[in-house]
Design goal:
The protein is mainly alpha-helical and 147 residues long. The chain has helices spanning 41-99, 103-144; strands at 15-16, 23-24, 29-31, 36-38. Bound molecules: zinc ion (2 copies).
Length: 147
Amino acid sequence: MKDTCDRHEGVNAVGTCHSCGKPFCADCLSEGLEDLYCSSAECQARMARDDGIIEERNGRVDAEISEMTRAFDSRMINFLVGLWIVAAPLFVYLGSNGWTTNVGLASVMGVLGALVLCLQLRTFINMYKRRTMNRRRVELISERGKH
Ligand SMILES: [Zn+2]
Ligand SMILES: [Zn+2]
């Protein structure tokens, strides 16, 4: 940007005020949550108003995300418990048919093995969940805009 600061002659501007649109140097601009504003009373008031709107919007988005996370968690738990219930007898069956003839041992190891499988899977699903929720949060924030 080749403009000079609206308030300081000969000083290069580094950005424009989001409120009045004039170019300013770094000393004259203050950083709002999403935009830069100059130090005029009017533009500072606008910054406070915009930041208030942004905070309120972010609060609503966060509430929505935690609601989605709760719903996701309960579906995940249902899925994993269901998987465990299916996998445990399968593991017990496989264990007692190949690995050992001790049915008691096969039962314990089968049930535990299926549990370990489910817990491992849970770690992966949680990684996926975090990525998805972060992406969704960014989407929601840009969808909602600010004004
Ligand atoms: Zn301004
Ligand atoms: Zn300046």
